[in-house]
């Protein structure tokens, strides 16, 4: 590919920077005295374009963003057209045409138009050429070649000119070769750079001229022109002065302009630009192309030189410049690296050209027509000021005067000011021509000086709306880092070849230049998928500023943030504040949302000065003197006047008492309606050490406010310590202004074009179908009313892992946050939370630079929906996460409470909506400040003992002094309602383990991560000598007989088959008698006996009797027994009858003794098709299971029906009573048995570590023969032990569990067992446990019926004989509402005499009756008159829409603030006490009526607040 010449590169870059424009159009306008033949004209233009390659060259960018020359074939079409104009239309058409923009990456640089007027004799030909293909020198060869081509084509032939010796592309290649590598000190480029670095050292970046308007950050490029003339005589005198000093006329003009500009700007250092031809070789003379170069000519006006002395300086400077004019201007800019800005041109802003008098020559002729070149006024400008000087010819060949045109930027100057500057220049020329010895300011009169001094602006001031040079509004290194900013830091560093670039490092000051900037924007567009131009980089040259520029809400025009004057009478809360106010209403006031700062100070503070400084800070930040009260259910801000009483105390204490004092302070409960949200304490202990405690409520500050607060407090303290008030500038806006602005920019949700509507539409699509509640590895059921209590588990990753994770992030164009996010997602998936994970994070929310210094609550919560399915590698997952996070941050303007309101998930007090897990990664804290500060101190970690969500992982990105990773550390904040400390530690261990694995190998698949750690080493099943079944087997009947002998009168069953209690002695005797009858019927060791009967005393007798025979039993009906090969099959009648026949001889002498590997029973496990599959269980396995399960462990993995284990638990030592066959009665059991440990394996039969869910496998070597007659099932149900000895097998139970920190198993049920209501998982075990805790309930089962929308509970009363007796449904629901989430409270409670059970002992859910009319649903209207009143109040608050008794308030249009109004209305109308929490827990009229009835809410509400007459009123 052919590179661009340096001149082309400069214009290509400017075209990219400014976009397609007319700023560099170079039109040639020819007035013809006739109309040429259009066919001849087009042919001639084709000839010229074919001759000069540059006229058919476009400049596209390659894949790397680097531009190249693309030369079109000579025969390609050219843009030639004839335009017919009427009346005065020709001039207007010409003006419009010459201002047409070019995109030189796509458009050919030549367009030709012939404008004709039917009413006129002549015509106008316009050759519109972009400057990238021409320069002033090129006009002559262009017109000459066009003249010759027209003549030839008129004669019917092609032009016969000689081929050009070289083309522009040859020049481009030659230029690169000639200049060489600027890094090579022997190259021409390097040598010339040495000169220019010295020549321009210390030059001012901008010539600071007086002007009418401030310089805009983005110039419009619009210009206008004023003209003047220097008369002939003055021109000749000026030329004579120049000749006398050996200078050229240009040098004399330049010197005069420097004097004029120096006087106007008040400077002695003036730089102007000028153009040089740039055609050093003769072969280039006849070539059309862009050869000119720009030189910077710096004039030193110091010392008040005479004009002649100044001319000598100028001459020497210019001659040196011309001797070094091979260095292209853009290389000069790239290597000298001046301040880059779109607002002004680098090095100079004033351009000067002098055109010498043209030689006499023939006018161009086109096909016999005379052509006259006409100057064109382009209303565009590239510089602040451009002075065009043209020498006029005279008959005698001497100077004939100067025409002077001043083109000025209308962004800066009015015409009057431009004329003033032009007049100043002309009078300077005149004065210096008249008196060469005059000093620099002599030409300026008082009138001009006064006029210039009174202008309102200066061109050297910082552009309007931008930060000062070198800054980007940065507030500190610890500022929040948008993930895009972190990615931008990596991309900046990559392009600049640096290890690291900080968020506030300027691209151009760090070694970047224009073309590197083009490549950078190309990379950013590719990586971030955003619309970006080089213009954006100039306007925002740091990662922080560019990230902020990219984060505007989808290109919408946002009104500027300004102070609101006057403010409305009612100040609304910001949306973030509104959410916290609602939480405060819902959960009650507490310390959960306190933001504490505790510092052990390094040097003592003056308590009085500190108190005064706190007053200054509170006065500076309105938010610190704001309270929040409700009026009519609507919260509003009240900003209290300054000064206010600052709640600060200096307390003398002891080091021993200090910890408790801090503990009390940081747990302070703020009354948001009555007290300001800041509390301060200064403690001085007995040793003189001081500790500063600041406690803020989160409604007034976020984490990123703390640095601002401490900075301001430090400034104020310094001032007060010196005896004066701080002299800070007022803040540009206050938090109340932000709150008003936020409501304004979001707009109306009813307007589909509003920001609110667009952002809501995005998030509805993004979160559609996402789980509302994550399935976390909790230790306890979720309570109905969380206590908000929490604790912290430390997290730490070392520097090497931290560095590796940073490297993984950079390699994948991701941020460290994204990598940590992906690690957390893998951890949650590994812990059983699934593959669709809504993870929350906090964004800074300071979208406007004016908010940078403000204390306030700006943060917002974004939901990052993370999918880990599909078995991706970690890199693949990171790419997904990157896309998710970038999309989320591009849509982070929607406040979280509005997101909840519009997505309308199920409202409940039991968990946080949309996400229950939050990730925070705090950037490296700011480095040391210059010098010590009064508030320097060591932060004291504070545990408030609270948790806002289920889990919050908060990490700090620690860095060394050089910015190198120094470790990731932080805490896991967890809700102690749900998690034990051991489980929290397991979660941290999984996260750290996975992070270290990824750091070592980021190409591992997600399914292979997180499988190391405690628990995976429990697979050793070696027995140390001999097989398991050779060891002695404990006899369950012997154990039972021993227990019966020790307590023969203990009750084993409260009611036997005849209703009378059965003791252990009686049970033993009956089982011995039945065993003898079975032996007589041929039952021997190894045989199977079917037992077809319900749970109860006869079944217990039968099981004991079968095992006394050394045989095994099969639970189930005749078909089940037949399938298992059981004979005989006993019924309850058989047992009752035969166990009553006396034994005539000693049974013990005939009893069979089972071997350990004989079958004891046939149990059922879930087969691969989901159906129950029978498995033979040995005597050893059954005995081991009983020993493992202990009392009440009714969920042993060896059984599908846990009946046997529950039975044996009761028989061998559990409490007397009916064995409970419900599988879910208890989810905890010990994990070892006689055959070795129970195994937890993943789907690939790999051991899982503690805390990680796995399927339960039981060692089965020599114990389980398999499924009788079902080889296929056996192959799946009984598997080879992947870690055991050869031949060792495992029994697959179909149950899932995880091992807790103390080694116990917590069972999670079978896949597909979980039931859901409104998309939320219902823990039926927890509901059942709550039911069993009620005094009148003996047994219960909880289910969601097929097609049902709520939970149904079936209960057995203690003495219930008739349905509906003994259990009050409303009381049940009211009690459960205090213990389980409201969506899990049964909508129907059905009382039954007994629960139907399947033959294997499980509750037969299919046999449960549907709730009938007798079982009143809580969503029915019932007979409570308050239900109708509540329906009316619901309807009133919801704007009049009809509401049924069972309608959920939040499902029919209600939201949190409306719920507050509903609470107020209900309390007022019904005279009851009601809280916002009550509406969340009972959100339908029927439920709320039931709550009011059962909660005993009869206490009258407080009397309404009324104005009362006061004593002395009106006197």
Automatic annotation (TrEMBL):
Residues 1221-1233 have a biased composition (Basic and acidic residues). Gene3D superfamilies: 3.30.300.30, ACP-like, alpha/beta hydrolase, Chloramphenicol acetyltransferase-like domain, Luciferase, Domain 3, N-terminal domain of ligase-like, Nonribosomal peptide synthetase, condensation domain. PROSITE patterns: CARRIER, PHOSPHOPANTETHEINE. It comes from the Bacteria. Residues 1505-1515 have a biased composition (Basic residues). Its cofactor is pantetheine 4'-phosphate. Residues 458-479, 1006-1031, 1216-1236, 1407-1426, 1494-1515 are annotated as: Disordered. Residues 479-554, 1421-1496 form the Carrier domain. One of its GO terms (molecular function) is catalytic activity. CDD domains: LCL_NRPS-like. GO terms for cellular component: cytosol. GO terms for biological process: amino acid activation for nonribosomal peptide biosynthetic process; antibiotic biosynthetic process; lipid biosynthetic process; secondary metabolite biosynthetic process. SMART domains: PKS_PP. This is Carrier domain-containing protein.
């Amino acid at each position: 590919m052919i590179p661009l010449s340096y001149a082309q590169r400069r214009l290509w870059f400017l075209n990219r920077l400014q976009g397609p424009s007319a700023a560099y159009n170079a039109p040639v306008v020819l007035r013809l005295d006739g109309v040429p033949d259009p066919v001849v004209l087009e042919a001639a233009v084709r000839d010229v374009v074919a001759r000069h390659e540059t006229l058919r060259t476009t400049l596209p960018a390659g894949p790397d963003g680097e531009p190249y020359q693309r030369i079109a074939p000579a025969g390609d079409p050219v843009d030639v057209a004839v335009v017919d104009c009427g009346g005065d239309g020709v001039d207007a058409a010409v003006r419009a045409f010459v201002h047409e923009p070019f995109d030189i990456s796509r458009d050919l640089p030549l367009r030709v138009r012939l404008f004709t007027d039917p009413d006129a004799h002549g015509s106008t030909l316009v050759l519109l050429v972009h400057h990238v293909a021409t320069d002033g020198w090129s006009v002559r060869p262009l017109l000459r070649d066009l003249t010759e081509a027209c003549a030839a084509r008129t004669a019917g032939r092609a032009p016969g000119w000689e081929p050009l010796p070289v083309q522009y592309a040859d020049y481009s290649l030659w230029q690169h070769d000639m200049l060489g590598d600027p890094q090579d000190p022997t190259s021409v480029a390097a040598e010339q750079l040495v000169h220019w670095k010295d020549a321009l050292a210390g030059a001012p970046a901008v010539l600071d001229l007086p002007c009418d308007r401030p310089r805009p950050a983005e110039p419009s490029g619009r210009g206008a022109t004023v003209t003047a003339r220097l008369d002939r005589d003055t021109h000749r005198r000026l030329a004579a002065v120049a000749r006398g000093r050996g200078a050229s006329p240009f040098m004399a003009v330049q010197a005069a302009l420097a004097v004029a500009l120096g006087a106007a700007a008040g400077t002695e250092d003036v730089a102007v630009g000028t153009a040089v031809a740039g055609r050093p070789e003769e072969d280039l003379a006849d070539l059309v192309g862009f050869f000119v170069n720009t030189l910077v000519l710096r004039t030193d006006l110091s010392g008040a030189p005479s004009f002649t002395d100044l001319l000598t300086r100028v001459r020497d400077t210019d001659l040196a410049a011309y001797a070094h004019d091979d260095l292209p201007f853009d290389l000069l800019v790239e290597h000298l690296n001046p301040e880059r800005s779109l607002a002004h041109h680098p090095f100079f802003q004033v351009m000067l050209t002098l055109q010498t008098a043209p030689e006499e020559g023939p006018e161009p002729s086109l096909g016999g027509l005379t052509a006259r070149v006409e100057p064109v006024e382009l209303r565009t400008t590239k510089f602040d000021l451009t002075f065009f000087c043209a020498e006029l010819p005279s008959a005698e060949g001497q100077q004939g005067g100067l025409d002077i045109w001043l083109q000025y930027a209308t962004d800066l100057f009015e015409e009057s000011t431009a004329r003033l500057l032009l007049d100043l220049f002309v009078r300077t020329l005149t004065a210096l021509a008249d008196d060469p010895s005059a000093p620099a300011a002599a030409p300026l009169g008082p009138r001009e000086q006064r006029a210039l001094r009174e202008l309102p602006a200066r061109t050297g001031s910082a552009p309007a709306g931008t930060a000062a040079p070198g800054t980007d509004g940065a507030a500190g290194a610890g500022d929040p880092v948008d993930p895009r900013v972190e990615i931008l830091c990596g991309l900046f560093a990559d392009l600049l070849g640096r290890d690291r670039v900080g968020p506030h490092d300027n691209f151009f000051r760090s070694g970047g230049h224009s073309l590197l900037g083009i490549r950078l924007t190309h990379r950013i567009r590719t990586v971030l998928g955003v619309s970006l131009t080089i213009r954006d980089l100039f306007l925002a040259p740091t990662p922080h500023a560019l990230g902020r520029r990219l984060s505007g809400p989808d290109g919408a025009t946002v009104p500027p943030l300004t102070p609101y004057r006057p403010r409305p009478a009612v100040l609304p809360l910001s949306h973030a504040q509104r959410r916290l106010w609602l939480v405060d209403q819902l959960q009650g006031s507490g310390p959960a949302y306190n933001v504490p700062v505790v510092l052990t100070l390094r040097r003592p503070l003056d308590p009085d000065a500190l108190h005064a400084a706190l007053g200054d800070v509170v006065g500076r930040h309105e938010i610190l003197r704001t309270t929040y009260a409700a009026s009519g259910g609507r919260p509003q801000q009240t900003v209290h006047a300054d000064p206010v009483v600052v709640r600060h105390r200096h307390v003398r204490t002891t080091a021993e008492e200090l910890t408790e004092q801090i503990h009390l302070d940081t747990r302070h409960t703020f009354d948001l309606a009555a007290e300001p949200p800041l509390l301060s304490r200064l403690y001085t202990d007995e040793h003189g050490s001081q500790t500063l405690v600041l406690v803020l409520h989160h409604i007034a500050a976020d984490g990123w406010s703390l640095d601002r607060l401490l900075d301001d407090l430090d400034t104020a303290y310094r001032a007060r310590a010196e005896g004066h008030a701080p002299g800070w500038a007022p803040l540009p806006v206050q938090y109340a202004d932000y709150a008003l602005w936020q409501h304004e920019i979001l707009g109306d949700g009813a307007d589909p074009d509003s920001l609110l509507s667009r952002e809501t539409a995005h998030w509805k699509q993004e979160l559609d179908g996402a789980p509302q509640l994550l399935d976390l590895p909790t230790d306890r059921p979720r309570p109905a009313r969380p206590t908000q209590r929490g604790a912290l588990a430390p997290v730490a990753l070392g520097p090497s892992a931290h560095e590796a994770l940073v490297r993984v992030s950079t390699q994948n164009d991701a941020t460290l946050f994204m990598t940590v996010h992906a690690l957390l997602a893998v951890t949650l998936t590994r812990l059983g939370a699934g593959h669709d994970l809504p993870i929350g994070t906090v964004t800074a929310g300071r979208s406007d630079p004016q908010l940078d210094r403000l204390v306030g609550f700006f943060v917002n919560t974004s939901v990052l929906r993370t999918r880990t399915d599909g078995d991706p590698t970690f890199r693949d997952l990171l790419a997904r996460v990157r896309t998710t996070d970038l999309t989320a941050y591009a849509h982070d303007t929607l406040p979280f409470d509005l997101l909840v309101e519009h997505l309308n998930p199920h409202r409940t007090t039991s968990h946080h909506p949309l996400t229950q897990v939050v990730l925070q990664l705090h950037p490296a804290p700011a480095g040391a400040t210059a010098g010590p500060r009064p508030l320097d101190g060591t932060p004291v970690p504070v545990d408030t003992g609270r948790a806002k969500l289920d889990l919050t992982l908060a990490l700090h990105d620690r860095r060394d002094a050089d910015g190198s990773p120094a470790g990731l550390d932080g805490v896991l904040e967890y809700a102690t309602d749900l998690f034990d400390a051991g489980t929290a530690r397991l979660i941290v261990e999984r996260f750290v383990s996975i992070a270290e694995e990824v750091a070592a190998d980021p190409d591992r698949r997600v399914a292979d991560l997180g499988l190391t750690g405690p628990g995976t080493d429990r697979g050793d099943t070696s027995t140390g000598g001999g097989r398991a079944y050779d060891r002695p087997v404990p006899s369950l009947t012997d154990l039972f007989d021993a227990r019966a002998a020790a307590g023969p009168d203990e009750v084993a069953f409260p009611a036997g088959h005849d209703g009378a209690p059965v003791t252990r002695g009686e049970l033993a005797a009956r089982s011995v008698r039945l065993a003898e009858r079975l032996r007589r019927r041929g039952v021997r060791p190894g045989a199977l006996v079917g037992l077809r009967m319900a749970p109860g005393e006869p079944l217990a007798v039968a099981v004991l009797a079968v095992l006394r025979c050394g045989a095994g039993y099969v639970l189930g009906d005749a078909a089940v027994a037949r399938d298992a090969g059981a004979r005989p099959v006993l019924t309850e009648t058989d047992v009752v009858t035969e166990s009553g026949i006396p034994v005539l001889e000693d049974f013990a002498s005939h009893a069979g003794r089972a071997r350990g590997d004989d079958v004891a029973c046939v149990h059922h496990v879930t087969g691969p098709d989901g159906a129950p599959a029978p498995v033979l269980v040995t005597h050893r396995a059954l005995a081991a299971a009983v020993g493992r399960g202990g009392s009440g462990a009714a969920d042993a993995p060896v059984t599908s029906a846990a009946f046997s284990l529950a039975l044996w638990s009761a028989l061998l030592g559990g409490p007397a009573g009916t064995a409970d066959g419900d599988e879910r009665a208890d989810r905890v059991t010990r994990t070892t048995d006689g055959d070795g440990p129970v195994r937890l394996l993943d789907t690939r039969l790999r051991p899982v570590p503690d805390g990680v869910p796995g399927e339960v496998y039981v060692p089965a070597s020599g114990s389980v023969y398999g499924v009788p007659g079902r080889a296929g099932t056996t192959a799946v149900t009984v598997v080879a032990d992947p870690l055991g000895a050869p031949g060792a097998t495992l029994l697959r139970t179909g149950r899932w569990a995880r091992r807790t920190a103390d080694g116990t198993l917590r069972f999670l049920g079978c896949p597909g067992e979980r039931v859901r209501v409104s998309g939320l998982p219902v823990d039926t075990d927890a509901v059942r446990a709550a039911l069993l805790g009620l005094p009148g309930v003996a047994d219960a089962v909880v289910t969601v019926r097929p097609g049902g929308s709520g939970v149904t509970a079936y209960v057995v009363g203690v003495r219930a004989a008739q349905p509906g007796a003994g259990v009050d449904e409303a009381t049940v629901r009211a009690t459960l509402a205090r213990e389980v989430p409201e969506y899990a409270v049964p909508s129907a409670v059905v009382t039954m005499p007994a629960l139907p059970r399947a033959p294997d002992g499980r509750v037969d859910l299919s046999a449960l009756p549907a709730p009938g009319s007798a079982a009143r649903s809580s969503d029915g209207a019932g007979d409570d008159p308050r239900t109708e009143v509540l329906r009316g109040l619901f309807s009133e608050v919801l704007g009049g829409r009809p509401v049924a008794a069972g309608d959920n308030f939040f499902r029919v249009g209600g939201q949190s603030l409306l719920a507050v109004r509903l609470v107020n209305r209900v309390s007022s109308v019904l005279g009851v006490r009601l809280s916002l929490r009550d509406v969340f827990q009972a959100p339908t009229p029927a439920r709320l009526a039931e709550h009011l009835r059962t909660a005993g809410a009869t206490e009258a509400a407080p009397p309404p607040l009324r104005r009362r007459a006061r004593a002395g009123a009106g006197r």
